[in-house]
Queue: 4 jobs
Job 1
Amino acid sequence: MLTSIVIIGISALMFCYWFRYTCSLILRTESGQDYTTEVAAANRLSFLSVRKELAEAPQEQLGELQSKLDRDFEIVKCLLRHSEALERSGSPEELMLRIDYQSLKMWCWIGRRLAPSSAKRALEEMSLIVGHFANSFAERAAATRA
């Protein structure tokens, strides 16, 4: 019985490690052209400014920055949903990043109270996910125009 619990626990930890590592690899992968600045400007997204503000943001401001990222995430999800209707359904990578965003959101909520530096790292990765989705949307739009 104890052996089974230990094996299940280790397996769960290894799965979490694999999941986080895979998400970080997806975010590090560079595409042919970076459209994030154009998409952010066209849709009034604030994830680029959030990245800049994170360095010197006090603990009290982290909730506001998270709200901005959540707003951007919803807008980009909506944009992707409309582009998927024109092209194809979401990829497994996008699903993984959506799950990662939600888990980081929860981690940031906990970290804001207990470990602000951990919350800042979570917000940084959340902004990278929003940027990745914004760039994916622009790549799909460029592909349909071509």
Job 2
Amino acid sequence: MKPSVNRIALLGISILGISLLHYLTPLHLHYLHDIFQRFYYLPIILAALWFGFRGGLTCSLVVSIVYAPHILFQWGGHLTVEMEKYMEIVLYNIVGSVTGLLAQREREKSLELQQTAEGLEESYKKLQAQSERIIAIEEQLRRSEKLSTLGEMAAVLAHEIRNPLGSIRGTAEILRDDYRPGDSKYEFIEIQIKETERLNHVVEDFLRMARQQPVELRDCSIREELETIVTLVAKDARQRGVSLKFEPNGEQGGIRGDGEKLRQAFLNIIINALQATPQGGLVSIVLNKVESGFEIRFNDNGSGIAQENLQRIFEPFYTTKSDGTGLGLAVTRKIVEAHGGKLDIESEPGSGTTVSVSLPLQERTS
């Protein structure tokens, strides 16, 4: 509103100034009057450009009204001169009207183009959002296809491996009864039983990826679970020449969760960190108690993960290790998500990796 008022004031002042020049300049200086009467075109054109057809016509009429007394009373009696001045007034109105009409049409066309551009931009944003949803759905379909294939493989493994393993373990337990602890054959049979259990756990990992396992909620101390894992991997860290540091910050408490599954998830993360950290490096585990639950950060100063690999590390069977299965992080994320938590990874080549796990407090159910 204020710019319009300023423009109207400027037009009024310019018309008044030009008119005063006419009325105060002697008539014998006719060449100056010829110049002054051309000055009126400036406010007329400006009014037409600023306010369109109505603005240009209104300004030209105001100029005509202000300029007409000068013609009648100061140039009276000179018919030829008067006709020239009156024709100038007609031109004022023609220029004001035509310029205003053209400016108004140009403004309307610009507005229409702007609205079209906004519509196209909005359509582009909708198409972009739909494209992102399609990409996300395709990614889910690919993941589901992989899980479906994994499910078929797990079913075959369950039938072809677990049954023989059960027979081997049962036979070994029968043979163990013939020997006493301390006997070398007793120890060999114990190793055989433990190895069958280990192979059975490998098969269970495939089954966990194939179908969501229910989480058994029990009182669980995150600090105790992490301390247990640190104790378990301490020897491996020393052999690799890597320092292992655990930092529980603040007052700690417990959550309702499946301690065994959480130990498996944390162990997968720490083993990956140890394997990625060179000799003399550091792997740190920071545990923080927050209002909503717990936040655990696993940091290493290893080689880091390339950006193209970072987007795929949670895919089943995807691995950059020659001896890896590509199931560790996939299983870990499923366990964390089954507890209502979230797992994030930040990494850059040469700068190490940080894995963040957020676990919410679970309400007790009666």
Job 3
Amino acid sequence: MRALVGVEASPVVGIAGDFDVQQRQHQIGQFPCARCHEQPQELTSLSEANPRWAHANIRAIHPARGSCNTCHNYDDLQTLRLQDGTTVDVNQVYQLCSQCHFEQAQDWAGGAHGKRLGGWRGRRVIMNCTDCHDPHAPAFGPEIPVAGPRIPRTARRH
């Protein structure tokens, strides 16, 4: 099947279904981590007490009772750590999210949650969880609905 032009995608791993997910490493401004970090890092808290810290812009309210190393692999900063200790590429963040958000992951895999790229024909390529959700604060805030289209009324005929 034809690939979408300009969309880097890879097959989904670890979740039932035959589809691709958009790769997102190239969209992360502070990736690869090795640009700043030369070696594995010690656990550091995201604290407003240290505003000069490079990651002070992150509002870490997720995971609720976790710390940075709940998801981030400090032994290899280019990867994420799953609950069982195995590591996954940043492009496979859906594997990390699906460990807790399994109902949303089922909907995502089935096409009822998330955004499909490139229309409905051809190979199914969808966006990753973190393309829509901030992984550190994933809930969407309240928004004012956009007004619907204005359709001119036509005269009634009898």
Job 4
Amino acid sequence: MAVDSSMPVLVVDDYKTMVRIITNLLRQLGFSDIDEANDGQEALGRLKERRYGLVISDWNMEPMTGYDLLQEVRGDENLSHTPFIMVTAEAKTENVIAAKKAGANNYIVKPFNATTLQSKIESVFSS
């Protein structure tokens, strides 16, 4: 696995239970440095304070969506290279295409397990 599990990961979701699930899955995969944010705005603040090795963000959040967050991250020259995985409950093709076009490195549809998360993370860092 070419992934450095000691890198800091930011999990962004407005649904506490989902944050806990993703955090637990990351821990199962050996990650220990995990921060969380409840929406895009909070995540953006954290991203400006600290360099993360990976962002895993939900798509549907208020007031700032994961898609908006992704666009902000890609538009900021200090953050633009941050690996970004979008998580959503909807497997709509247009969402996947929109996320890819906006610069998401990968895309995960809920519900998912540790194996799926691991393969998505690995594919981000192998490309």
